[in-house]
Amino acid sequence: MAKTQICLCFIIFLYLWSEGNFMKVAKADRSGDWCVAKPSTANERLQENINFACSKIDCQIILEGGACYLPDNLISRASVAMNLYYQAQGRHFWNCNFEGSGLIGITDPSYEGCIYQFRK
User: Who has greater pLDDT, 49 or 18?
Assistant: First the structure.
């Protein structure tokens, strides 16, 4: 019983300690939320998401020669387009649904020259 209580206290201590440290790191970076495509989404759904989002917002960034064209795959381009739409619509959770194929993440998905748009 004593071992269980010590383990539980240690786990609680680690949780409380890490919360404070992770919060400091998150605030130092670009903290916020971004909309990305679920990795398990079918290609047809990804293309529909791109078509929908790009009918509402400017998607030049994912076209050939754009900063987010590479890697040349649907999930990457769909994630950028979905995030552009999500940010433009005010970052409401329902603007990232895309019929269940969107995820809201708190880690900035930007890479190399492709900066995922973020509005506070």
Answer: 49
